[in-house]
Every structure is written in structure tokens, then in C-alpha cells.
Amino acid sequence: MGPDFETYVRESSSSLLRTAFLLVGDQASAEDVLQTALLRAYRSWDRIDEPKATDAYVRRIVVRTALNWRFRYRKAQEVLTSVPVVVDEAAPDAST
Fold it and tell me: Which of the 8 DSSP states describes residue 44?
């Protein structure tokens, strides 16, 4: 059996956070992704039979969680309009 979950998180969380950051692009989102991924890993921790596979297993969860997050985030950010938005460049600046 591999390391206990608490030990694994203590030893690997900074590396996993860097991976999440590279996938999502900002610190706060990377922390959210990592927290969600670690929760998923914890739920299935007892199924890890091969200690050498622990890191690959958890990283796979981080990657899948990040990809799911990016898909949902992008979809939520889309704003569809039926009328194009036109910026009037000739309008005077309101700050003057």
C-alpha cells in the first residue's frame, strides 16, 4: 500500500498546485481545482494498490478536474447576443 493520504498531500501539494496552475492559468482557480481533485482522490484512496502509481493516479485526477473546470468556466463566460454591440468612438469622453 502507498503512503497515507495526509502524508501524500503534505509532500505533493505544491507540485500538484503547479500542475493545476499550468492547466487553468491563475492561482485562485488552480487552488480550487486542486482542492476538488484531492477530494476525489481521497474518496478512492483505498483503491490504489501500487504505491508507484499513486502520483500518476492523482495527477490524472488533477488534469481531468482542470479540463472539466475550464470547459464549465468558458461555457459560463459566453454571452450570446442577437444584436452586435457597437462602440461609438465619436462620443465625448464622460470623464472630461
Answer: T
